[in-house]
Amino acid sequence: MKDNRGQVWNRGASIYYETVGDGAPLVMLHGNGGDKEDFSGLIDYFLPRYQIVLVDSRGHGRSDTGFLKLTTGLMAEDVLAVMDHLGVAEAIILGFSDGANIALELAVQAPERVQAVIAVSGNTDPKGMRALPYLFIKLQYRFWNFLEKLGLPVGNRPQRYGLMCWSPRLSGEELSRIDSPVLLLAGTRDLIRTGHTRQMAEWIPGASLVLFKGAHHRSLFKETDSYIRQIRGFLKEYDL
What we know:
globular; Alpha/beta hydrolase; alpha/beta; AB_hydrolase_fold; AB_hydrolase_1; 8 helices
């Protein structure tokens, strides 16, 4: 991978990426409303062993939204396009929130491209979220969608809130076909229901699950050392 930054065209949108360091490819995928900068405080933990591939998801950061309906499946295709462009045959995928959902989509869509998945605070169905946050997101989607229909400037908020309302939709049967190592990390006070996270671990063969007591949705970025210890232990276990 000689590039350190660039853009890849895929299905009607320009997708922005950056690479840092040398070594085994490790793709980092941010959450809804974020961008690659969310991982700025994590990169050094993985250097110099890994080469970090940072991707701005479709509709986020420097990447276009395009005109297709936003889904985690489409965003997974964007990641594959970046990997193809960089000549990355396979990679470890680390995702947070919607990025975790995209990582799991990749493991289902293209298992031959995924060495391992580290999914932090992800879900496999919108109803995996706790009731009140899910209600808030649905109301936000309706609000911004209404303003858009009135012709008011709303950016891509309807698409981004809509993404969380209708995606992902990964079934237990699909998850049961994942054959790469998977580490699921979440907090007991996460946006995602603990029961849903446990169900994900049951569906995915051999998945490792760590629940951080009292941790919230974004605790990865506030209690980073605790999360990194688990991630490093997982990667060491599988000699990655």
